[in-house]
Design a protein that fits this description.
Largest sheet: 8 strands, antiparallel
Structural class: alpha+beta
CATH architecture of the largest domain: 3-Layer(aba) Sandwich
CATH topology of the largest domain: Rossmann fold
Number of domains: 3
Radius of gyration: 43 Å
Strand order of the largest sheet: 2-3-1-4-5-8-7-6
Shape: rod-shaped
Helix content: 55-70%
CATH superfamily of the largest domain: P-loop containing nucleotide triphosphate hydrolases
């Protein structure tokens, strides 16, 4: 068998998967109980159907040799040649009988017999009568052993139809019952399937919503260390893997166990010797099932891991497709994708290989059992110790007996696969945000906007300090800018103010309250951020500005757009504020996307305004328009700016210069120029670059 590689990612979940899944089922326990009851009814119908056919065979089709009693007209089922006959009688209440016998493929009718003569004819039926009877064109004659000769009349088709009219009725009645059972089976089976499908979808809906809601509560550190494609796989593929379990597997497992038990009990009751022949093969089935389950579980976990890796690759590279094409790396990236796709393909082939062996093996075992049943059952029928109908039941059951066992093996495998997906889901759900809000946080009536860093030390990992003993105070309504080389820690300060990360040492205060003691929601609602990398959601313009906040009216949206000079380009769009934007806003220019982000921030009327290179990707003319709007909008707001272009921050109340995570200089633009430090060097360098640009 193909070698199965070890799983490359091992889930860290160690709790009870079944218990947690059961918690999701509890609200729908009533539906599951109804579905299980319906499953029991359907299973009963499955067991009854072969019995009905067996009854039709033994009682009516093969029932020609059932003895007729001669009775009064009131008790008769039929009338033949002046006699009233019935097959339903009590032996001690009847004196005269009639009997049909089979001899050399022809039927003969004997009448006015006593019970001893009837028993003789039944015992010698067919082969015995053929050897001992004297046959004429229209009759046969046989001695009864007491010196009397019994004469049987050859029955024509018309005669046989009259005599067997009760058998025709019986077959018709069984046929009608069988039809009713089929219809009820179909209705109930469809009903339970519908109940389970709807219930399964409800549970999956609950899990998916809970998962996405939880993901939104996780800190940015989590997203720094977990690929987007992996998270997508948890919320989509892994959640969908649970759907089949809730919709089919759990209840069908009960159904199959019930059917196996039912088949086994009925077969033992009907004929224990034939039942044992079927049971002999069960150990082989159980061993092969166990091997199949273990191998398929290992393969499936590897498949889930490789799907997660492939989704991560796709998410990252489709998002960065523009960059791939700019650098003409399509061939190389395709080779990377092809390698991962081949890995998944080869693992899938191993999974199919396992299934391809197990299914035929189970079918072979079932057919071997069937051969044994037919062989021994035929001997029992010929020796008159088993009826044809009972043999039919065994043949019918043996075809169905091993199928649920095979189904259970695959269902257990699917169940384990679902558990593997559930482990990954619950691992994500158990992921705790490193940013924890205390119980009963402080909620000031209004945030004024004072910000203070006290001896702040911060590192993203271990002790690789991004900020080292940083202290400063920003008064309400003050405009403060942070400048410095890339990696100096400017953007980290902005992230810390909104408490997207927690510091290792020191304190951060807003309005003299430690932000760890404040409500996260209140802090972030008070801060309006404009990032350099603008993210535009698929949707219309107004929804991208209000971000689904229905409390923001269209008038407020337009006012914010006008304030940042975005209204003009929006009005020029075909549908204006209802214009649909593509993913990441690719149908807008970079400058237009930046203007939308300004409007998005300003529409919430924040107390603290944070701008991280907010005008870095806007052309000079647009930047001038924004600067004009910001002069008005920054009034009475604490404004924090990060910018490489020093011309945009010259009017700041305070400029803080960072270098390798430490504050080197601070002061106004003019004060810093007189200090002849890092700021002056940066300013003169940029001034020189601006002067030589026209000559380029």
């Amino acid at each position: 068998m193909a070698k199965i590689e070890k799983e490359t990612v091992i889930t860290s979940y160690s709790g009870s998967v079944f218990k947690r899944l059961f918690d999701y089922m509890k609200p729908y326990s009533g539906r599951f109980i109804v579905a299980i009851i319906m499953i029991f009814v359907v299973t009963a119908f499955e067991l009854i159907r072969p019995m009905l056919i067996a009854q039709a065979i033994d009682t009516y089709i093969e029932g020609y040799d059932r003895t007729y009693a001669i009775v009064d007209e009131t008790e008769a089922d039929l009338s033949y040649e002046g006699l009233f006959l019935t097959k339903d009688f009590k032996e001690n209440e009847v004196v005269n009988y009639c009997q049909i016998v089979l001899c050399d493929e022809e039927y003969y009718y004997f009448e006015n017999l006593n019970i001893r003569q009837v028993q003789l004819l039944v015992e010698k039926n067919d082969a015995g009568i053929k050897d001992e009877a004297l046959k004429t064109d229209r009759a046969i004659i046989i001695a009864d052993g007491s010196g009397n000769l019994l004469e049987g009349k050859l029955l024509l088709k018309e005669d046989l139809k009259i005599l067997r009219s009760s058998d025709y009725k019986g077959i018709f009645m069984i046929g009608m019952i069988y039809l009713i059972v089929l219809v009820l089976n179909a209705v109930i089976d469809s009903g339970q399937s519908y109940i389970l499908l709807i219930t399964g979808q409800n549970i999956i809906y609950d899990i998916r919503n809970e998962l996405f809601e939880h993901v939104q509560t996780l800190s940015l550190r989590f997203f720094d260390t977990h690929p987007v494609g992996q998270i997508d796989t948890r919320i989509t593929n892994d959640v969908e893997a649970l759907n089949r379990m809730f919709s089919h597997i759990l209840v069908n497992l009960i159904r199959n166990f019930t059917m196996i038990t039912g088949y086994a009990v009925v077969m033992l009751v009907l004929n224990s010797r034939l039942a044992i022949i079927a049971f002999i093969y069960l150990p082989v089935i159980f061993v092969s099932t166990s091997v199949f389950r273990n191998i398929s579980r290992r393969v499936y976990r590897i498949v889930r891991t490789k799907i997660s890796h492939l989704n991560t690759f796709l998410s990252e590279h489709i998002s960065g497709m523009k960059l791939i094409q700019i650098f003409a790396r399509e061939k190389e990236k395709f080779q990377q994708f092809e390698k991962q796709s081949d890995d998944l393909y080869n693992t899938r082939i191993k999974e199919l290989f396992v299934h391809a062996i197990f299914r035929p093996l189970t079918s072979l075992i079932a057919n071997l059992a069937l051969i044994g049943i037919v062989y021994k059952g035929s001997h029992y029928v010929l020796s008159d110790t088993l009826t044809v109908g009972v043999l039919y039941i065994f043949i019918s059951y043996i075809r169905s007996f091993f199928w649920p066992i095979q189904e259970i093996a695959q269902q257990l495998s699917t169940l384990q696969n679902a558990f593997a997906s559930a482990e990954k889901i619950f691992t994500l759900l158990d992921e705790k945000s490193v940013i924890q809000e205390i119980d009963n946080p402080i909620r000031p009536e209004k945030i004024e906007g004072k910000i203070e860093f006290k001896n702040v030390w911060f590192a993203y990992e271990n002790e690789n300090w991004v900020l080292k003993d940083v202290s400063f105070v920003i008064q309400p309504g003050q405009r403060v800018a942070f400048v410095g080389a890339t990696g100096a820690g400017k953007s980290s300060i902005l992230n810390l103010i909104g408490r997207y990360y927690d510091i290792q040492k020191g304190e951060i205060l807003i309005d003299d309250i430690n932000i760890k003691e404040m409500s996260l929601n209140q802090i972030r609602k008070a801060i309006g951020q404009v990032q350099q990398d603008v993210f535009i959601f698929t949707g219309d313009v107004k929804s991208n500005i209000r971000l689904l906040n229905e409390n923001v009216t269209i008038e407020q949206v337009k006012e914010a757009a006008k304030a940042v000079n975005a209204h003009q380009f929006i009005e020029n769009l075909p549908l204006q504020y209802d214009e649909m934007l593509t993913e990441r806003g690719t149908n807008l220019s970079f400058g237009q996307r930046q203007l939308l982000s300004f409007a998005r921030t300003l529409v919430i009327d924040p107390t603290i305004l944070v701008m991280d290179e907010a005008t870095a990707n806007v052309d000079t003319e647009t930047e001038q328009l924004i600067q004009e709007a910001l002069e008005t909008l920054m009034k009475k707001r604490t404004t924090i700016m990060v910018a490489h272009r020093l011309s945009t921050i010259q009017h700041a109340d305070n400029i803080i210069v960072l270098d390798h995570g430490q504050i080197i200089e601070s002061g106004t633009h003019q004060e810093l120029l007189t200090q002849n430090g890092i700021y002056r060097k940066l300013y003169e360098l940029q001034k020189y670059d601006d002067e030589i640009k026209p000559s380029d």
